[in-house]
What does this fold into?
Amino acid sequence: MNAPILSVRNISKQFGGIRAVNNVSFDVRKGEILGLIGPNGSGKSTLFNCILGQLKPTEGHCEINGKSTDGVRPADLSLMGVGRTFQQLSVFPKMSVLDNVILAGQEHEGTMLSRLFGKSDAGLTDKAKQLIEFFRLTPYLDTEAGSLSYGQQKLVDAAMAFMAGPGIVLLDEPAGGVNLTMLAHLKDRLMTYNRDHGTTFVVIEHNMEFVMSLCTRIIVLAQGEIIAEGSPDEIRSNQMVIDAYLGG
Amino acid sequence: MAELIQILVSGLAAGSIYALAAVGFTLLWQASQTINFAQGEFVMLPAFFVLVGVHFLGLPLWPAIFFGLLLSLLILGVAFKRLIVEPMLPHGTLPLVIATIALGLLLKESVKEFYGATAQPFPAIFPQTVYNVMGASVSLQDICNLAVSMLAIGGLQLFLSRTRTGRCMQASAQNPAVAEILGVNVKRMVLYTFLINAALATIASVLISPIYLAKFSNGETLGLVAFIAAIVGGFNQIRGALVGGLLIGVIDNLSAVYISAEYRAAMPLLLLIAIILLRPQGLLGTKEGRSV
It folds into this structure.
């Protein structure tokens, strides 16, 4: 079995008297698509933010490819090979789709001088166009991102997350607010990318159908703790999960 | 016809200088939600920096202009951001607006104290030649002022849309939290915006002062007209500020000749009222929502 690309080690997060995440540990291996599910208040968003360095865990730590993320700024996580999408749309609405995708990669290229005087696209136009084509957004290349539909903006978001060539991408509710057609398209693109590039995904999602059909492994959180872990089929048939989360 | 040409050219020349100041308004608003009511004084002050260079340091004109630019970048760019905007912004837009009004008064009164209340002659940077175009007297100075302003605004637009730093500045203005996560140094981009505003104010100052002379009170009218130009054109668009500035310049000159010289100052205000009633986002501006 290959070494974990992401290791979550005994993460706990306390807010005053509330323990939002309690001693959670798991590994994610290269090429996996891991789903992180749980009802509202289960601690999955808190855990996600701890992994991404936006919240400092009360206890525990995370490692990306064996390197601790302690003290790493969210901006520097992509240098460690981590891409992410946001629960809310994160496109720059008045910039073209192409500029949005180039921007997602350009700050990790070159020096301060080359940023001021070097090529305006940092040599990233071809790569950005390939990603835009991959997500079938080429007709909107020069369109202002803010004028696209919500689902299309989610695709731009995804393209931006892949721009820096990450080994692992954390997707925060990618299906939220996206219509069924666009959702199927998004799922297809994520699975194809995973298959072709071996990129690892960690997905937080409320949409059970989406998670069950996309992920290879699922972790279920409740009250800040892991209550179940396994393949989609195992999770589907787990009575505790059914009772607690699927209303069975 | 000759008179109309003359009015249009001088109106566009004056309007292009208003546009420089108006663009500064829109830049600061987009980058940091700063409405700088000292913007008029920001245009008034660099002329005095240049005069200090010429009269007190004995510098020739162009080195004095460079000296004025450096001082402007330092005082109207870096110091303004660090000492006023950054401490005040967390308290909301209104306290910052009040602080900029106070800053405007401070700058105005300081210049009056230091340099006197009388208007100071400012050396012309372009020849005073006047050409006859289809019977109209067109001054080379007006043409040059228009050209320099257009070049400055066009260059800025190109910088913002065609360079990596410009793209980062746009991103920082549109979604600073995400820009930060993508590795953009948002604080630095905001600083660049303040520096650009200071540079635009210096250009406007050097262009307008040979015509109106350098006077401590110049900022009163300039600031108001530039603010109106930014709103008329669209507060969230550089090209809007440009169009607003040119429009105000032309309307101001046309109304002085064809309506009433006494009421010329009222015309931009009437235009402002009409725009706010009919198209609050401005002629070229886009509607914008903000969560509070």
Q: What stands out?
A: Strands of chain A lie at 4-15, 18-29, 33-37, 59-64, 67-68, 82-85, 168-172, 200-204, 217-222, 225-230. The mean pLDDT of chain A is 87. The two ends of chain A are 35 Å apart (CA to CA). Chain A touches chain B at residues 74-76, 78-79, 84, 86, 90-95, 99, 102-104, 106-108, 110, 115-116, 118, 120-122, 160 (CB under 8 Å).
